[in-house]
# Entry
Amino acid sequence: MKILVCVSKTPETTAKIGFSGTEFNTAGVQFIMNPYDEWYALVRALELKEANGGTVTIINVGPAANDPIIRKGLAIGADDAVRINAEPQSALTAAKYIAEYAKTGGFDLILTGKETIDYNGSEVGGMLAELLDLPYISYATSLDVAGTTATVSRDIEGGTEEVEVSTPVVVSAAKGMAEQRIPNMRGIMMAKRKPLNVVEPGAAADHAKVVAYEMPEGKTAVKMIDPENMDELVRLLHEEAKVI
Amino acid sequence: MILVLADSPNGQLKKGSFEAVTYGKKVADAMGTQCAALVLGSADNAGQLGQYGAAKVIHINNDQLNNFDSQVYTSVIADVAKQLYAKVVIVSHSSAGKSLIGRLAVRLDAGSVAGVNHLPTVDGGFKVKKNVFSGKAIAEYEVSSPVKVLSLMGNSIPVEATGSEVTAESMDVNIPASNVTVKDRKTVAGTVPLPEAELVVSAGRGMKGPENWGIIEELAAELGATTACSRPVADTGWRPHHEHVGQTGVAIRPNLYIAAGISGAIQHLAGVNSSKVIVVINKDPEAPFFKAADYGIVGDLFDVVPRITESLKKYKAANG
# Structure
């Protein structure tokens, strides 16, 4: 079984978010592999490989500065990696670059995280599936593959569903699919020798771009309420905040 | 024409669909056109979407559409969008909508913005805002393609029912065979699912153990709220995972979020900081959550939470 895992680079969860004009201010920001991609999509891919044999390839769209993050994916256990050498401008361009690579790769399973923690779009998986004309199961909390049949649990409005779908298929991974793995020393050493292929991007038309950023309005100072007087809280929630 | 997909999980049109149609109507007004609502699969009274501003309701009531397959849905929605010459296609930012938006963007060769929470501006280019970095910033996108696809974050605009019911009509579309077989479906009965909930009562490690959750459930029942919890609580199995709100759990934006015994780690805040009003109860006056709160109560949650329930009962009794 050939598995492709799409990994994205995001600011670390506690990073301070700021902008210079329409550019994200990266000064002092630590970058990580998007947690949904790493903890759930990549680890589940490795578990499936361990159970069924096959290979796990990770793919990232980004500049050479992303290599340490890609190497971490190799250290966790991926066999090889591909970096499309382009600054990802949008979900659509990233998806087009990945689809261009994936269409000749013969992958049985293409995994993404359910969304990135920076732009929170959850679009790339669906775009990839459409570009490759494949089924797409999003927000999967479990994934098993037997032969050419994938069994997937997915979150739906107010519940969960178990579905079966033939491979090849694109699946986006949510919490529950796997547990985070920490790379060990041996993995880190081996990662240095694993192939990281750099591919130059083709052309990809784009239709949407960020033209401005703003910061949310600051919260007004918290109003402290006497713990003995919850009648006051109820009154404020009704009369001032108007939420009940 | 503006085309809005109205989700009807288990045959029921929900608040998120009424919000999406309300939003679609406002976009249509701004662009000098009309709004059409599309319902796929079984649904009670699709024509009611007229009340929220749909000039036309298309209901394709085919059994095959009762199971959600993003590939089949995309094909049908794109077909309808083309027949109506839709300029903007809007879906809810729901489980279904999130798996459709990317596909639709590719199929319709459209620019897309996922999770919008403001109305677009249409003079001098089509621009629309959404929260990014888990609510820590807002980005404004410009969409330049002739057709645009948006998904609307829940609880972003109030539902407006100022129109009147219309008669739903069908449309001839090609429904391709599905590659996805639904084997089993489990729904959590009774409560409003967290992403749709307007009122949420949440608790954390300060509860000391799962056996103490009665006071949280009583407060939630009194308010008509949905219960939630912090990550450590879900990870230790005190509460089910679907209750976990935060960066790696469910991100929510209710009107009221009451947090008891949650310190307010940055990853938790990322999932709840778009709530309109936040009430924090913690015995530690230095808990970081107070900085993100609108109302704060320093005290023992085992005293404070039942007191809120009592005050609510009194308030209800006095105000009918």
